[in-house]
TrEMBL record:
Signal peptide region: 1-33
Pfam families, A to Z: 2-Hacid_dh, 2-Hacid_dh_C
UniProtKB keywords: Oxidoreductase, Signal
Protein name: Probable 2-ketogluconate reductase isoform X1
Encoding gene per record: LOC106973143
Domain D-isomer specific 2-hydroxyacid dehydrogenase NAD-binding: 146-325
Organism taxonomic ancestry: Eukaryota, Metazoa, Chordata, Craniata, Vertebrata
UniProt key word Membrane: no
Family the UniProt entry places it in: Belongs to the D-isomer specific 2-hydroxyacid dehydrogenase family.
The D-isomer specific 2-hydroxyacid dehydrogenase catalytic domain, residue ranges: 58-356
Record flagged with keyword Oxidoreductase: yes
Length: 365
C-alpha cells in the first residue's frame, strides 16, 4: 500500500487524471493479501478439490483467502479471522467442529443450487447465514440435461466409439436409437432447472409431463405445454424419457428404486442431473442389465466418481458425465460473483442476495 501511495504522489505531478484513475484503482483493488480484508475459508487454491483457479485473483480483491490446510495447521491463528466459508464443489465440509472453531463466521456461501451437503439446521443454530447460486446454474444444467437426453436417445457416445474404432469397415443400417421428437418426457422436479428443461423440450416437440410437490401456475404450464402428473407412478408409466431435476432431501432419497424402474417402459431412458442418491443405483444396474429399461444418462452418481470397477461403467447403454451440469466458464464465473456479492452483503449487514431461509419445519423456504 505504501508503495502505491508514493506512486500516486508522483502521478500528481504528471497528470491529475492519472491520480484519479489510480485512486479508483486502489479503491477497487486493494493489494493482494491485505491483512484488513475479511478472511474467507476455502478448500484450497489448486487441485481437484480447490476453488476455480481463474477466480483466485478476483476473490483476493475482496478477501484474504485462507485455505483449509492453513486453517487446520493453526486454527487458533486463522479461526477468528474467518468471516465466511466459500464452498466450491461441496467443499470444505461444514461440520459442527468447524463451526465451533470459527467464532467470527457470518455466512456460508455455497456454489450451486443443491444444499444436501449442508446441515442447515445446525448452521442456523449457530446464527450463521447461508446463500447459494440457483440462477447461475439453471440454464447450463438444463442444457446438460438435454445434452444427456439426446446423447442417450441417439447413442452418441456409442456411435462415436463405433465411428472411430480401427476395425470398423462399414456402418450397419441396423444401428439405431430412439426418436426424441414427439416422445413423452417426464420431468421430476419442476423448479427452475426442470422448467428450463421443459422450455427446451418443447422446441423438440416433446410431450411434457411433470411431477412436483407443488403444481405450477396454469400460465406457466401452458407456456411450455407441460401437463401436471400428481402421481409419480402415472408419470413413470407414460414417459419415454424420465428426467430427474429434483433436489436431494430425506424425502427424495432413492425416489427411483426397483418398484419405480419396473413401472417405466422397457424402451424408456432415465436421465439424472439432480443427485446420485435420488436413484437406488443397485436397482438401476439390475434394471439396465435385464432390459427393464433401455438406458440411462447420468451426470450424477453416488459416490463421485464411481469406483473404477462399478458395473455402471461397463454397460453400453449408460452415458456418464462428471457432475458437469454447471461446468461452463460463464456459469462458474457467475457463481463466483454471486457468492462474493452474498458474502459482502452479509459482512455489511445488508440484505443477502440468494439467502437460503428455513421454514419452521427446517425445510428450505
Ligand atoms: C499459530 O499462530 C500463533 C499466532 O500467530 C502463533 O503464536 C503460534 O506459534 C502458531 N502456532 C503454530 C503451531 O504454528
Ligand atoms: C462390414 O464389416 C464387418 C466387420 O466389421 C465385416 O465382417 C463385413 O463383411 C462388412 N460388410 C460389408 C458389406 O462390407
Ligand atoms: C444394456 O447394455 C448391456 C451391456 O452393456 C446389455 O446386456 C443390455 O441388454 C442392454 N440393455 C438394453 C435394454 O439394451
Amino acid at each position: 500500500m505504501r508503495t502505491e501511495t508514493r506512486v500516486g504522489h508522483l502521478a500528481l505531478w504528471i497528470s491529475p487524471i492519472c491520480v484519479l484513475l489510480h485512486t479508483l484503482c486502489i479503491f477497487k483493488e486493494p493489494a493482494m493479501g491485505d491483512q484488513d480484508l475479511p478472511g474467507v475459508l476455502v478448500s484450497g487454491l489448486e487441485g481437484p478439490h480447490g476453488i476455480c483457479e481463474d477466480h483466485i485473483g478476483d476473490l483476493q480483491k475482496h478477501f484474504t483467502l485462507i485455505t483449509l490446510q492453513e486453517f487446520l495447521e493453526n486454527n487458533t491463528r486463522f479461526g477468528p479471522k474467518v468471516q465466511a466459508v466459500y464452498i466450491w464443489g461441496g467443499k470444505p465440509a461444514v461440520t459442527q467442529e468447524l463451526l465451533q472453531s470459527l467464532p467470527s463466521l457470518k455466512i456460508i456461501a455455497s456454489a450451486g443450487a443443491g444444499l444436501d451437503h449442508l446441515d442447515l439446521k445446525l448452521i442456523a443454530s449457530c446464527g450463521v447465514k447461508v446463500a447459494n447460486t440457483p440462477q447461475a446454474v439453471s440454464s447450463p444444467t438444463a442444457d446438460m440435461g438435454m445434452a444427456l437426453l439426446l446423447a442417450a436417445a441417439r447413442r452418441v457416445v456409442e456411435g462415436h466409439r463405433l465411428a472411430i474404432a480401427p476395425d470398423t469397415e462399414n456402418f450397419s443400417t441396423n444401428w439405431m436409437g430412439q426418436e426424441v421428437t414427439g416422445a413423452t418426457l417426464g420431468i421430476i422436479g419442476m423448479g427452475s432447472i426442470g422448467y428450463k428443461i421443459a422450455q427446451r423440450a418443447r422446441a423438440f416437440e416433446m410431450k411434457i409431463l411433470y411431477h412436483n410437490r407443488k403444481r405450477r401456475k396454469l400460465e406457466e404450464e401452458e407456456a411450455v405445454g407441460a401437463t401436471y402428473c400428481e402421481s409419480l407412478d402415472d408419470l413413470l408409466q407414460r414417459s419415454d424419457f424420465v428426467l430427474l431435476a429434483v433436489s436431494l432431501t430425506p424425502q427424495t432419497q432413492r425416489l427411483i428404486g426397483k418398484r419405480e424402474l419396473n413401472l417405466m417402459k422397457p424402451t424408456a431412458i432415465l436421465v439424472n442431473i439432480g443427485r446420485g442418491l435420488l436413484v437406488d443405483q443397485d436397482a438401476l444396474v439390475q434394471a439396465l442389465q435385464t432390459g427393464v429399461i433401455k438406458g440411462a444418462a447420468l451426470d450424477v452418481t453416488h459416490p463421485e466418481p464411481l469406483p473404477r470397477d462399478h458395473p455402471l461403467l461397463k454397460l453400453e447403454n449408460v452415458t456418464l458425465t462428471p457432475h458437469a451440469g454447471s461446468a461452463t466458464h460463464q456459469a462458474r464465473r457467475q457463481m463466483m460473483e454471486n457468492l462474493v456479492a452474498s458474502i459482502l452483503a452479509s459482512l455489511h449487514g445488508l440484505p443477502i442476495p440468494n439467502e437460503v431461509r428455513l421454514n419452521w419445519d427446517n425445510s428450505v423456504a
